[in-house]
Amino acid sequence: MSEVKVDIPDVKQESAEVASEPKQPIEQVPYARFKELVDEKNTMKSEYETLKNKIKGESEARQLKEMESKGEYDKIMADMNARLETSEKKSKAWDEYQATRRDSLLSKLPEEDRAVYDGLPLEKLEVHVDKFTAKPSPASVDNSQPKSTGGYATFEEWAALDPEGYKKANDPQTSGKIKIAYGE
């Protein structure tokens, strides 16, 4: 049989070649440019909505004039009544929401203050109730490790003002500093 020599590439060499390829830099957009583009996009969105509403209003006005010229006053009245009914429903729902919200906010206040704050607009009442019901932040506590001087500025001050505590803390048998050695 004839021997066929197969050339098998070394895996270690290939991985080294791949690693040596220069990495592509990540393209980052500066924040100022990003903000500028977002602001521009938002401006265009608002202009688009304005133009869309304007065109819708103009088309409705044109349609209304066409209907008037044809003498379709009954259809115009029916359309206007339908719009009025939907607007009244929305208005009623909004009024109910405001009344419910006002009652829930006033219920959070003490009984004697409710008459005073009843006349405030809803926005100001919400702000006031939020301030009134906000829980104060807890007092900060020093959680650091106690000093080796027992809370005194120096060892001398500690020994002079609290001799028993000083003696107890520095006595090897009571302070837990007993060293036990085995062997030599």
Total strand segments: 0
Uncertain stretches? none
Largest sheet: none
**Separate helix tally:** 8
**Span between N and C termini?**
77 Å
Q: Helices and strands in order, then pairings?
A:
Blueprint lengths: L10 H10 L10 H40 L2 H35 L3 H7 L4 H12 L21 H7 L1 H8 L1 H4 L9
Structure report:
The chain is mainly α. Among the domains are: 42 residues; 44 residues, no CATH class. It has eight helices and no strands. Helix 6 crosses helix 7. It is flat and about 115 Å long. It starts with 10 loop residues before the first helix and ends in a 9-residue tail after the last helix.
Which characteristics define this entry?
mainly alpha, single chain, 8 helices, 184 residues
Concise summary:
The chain is an all-alpha fold and 184 residues long.
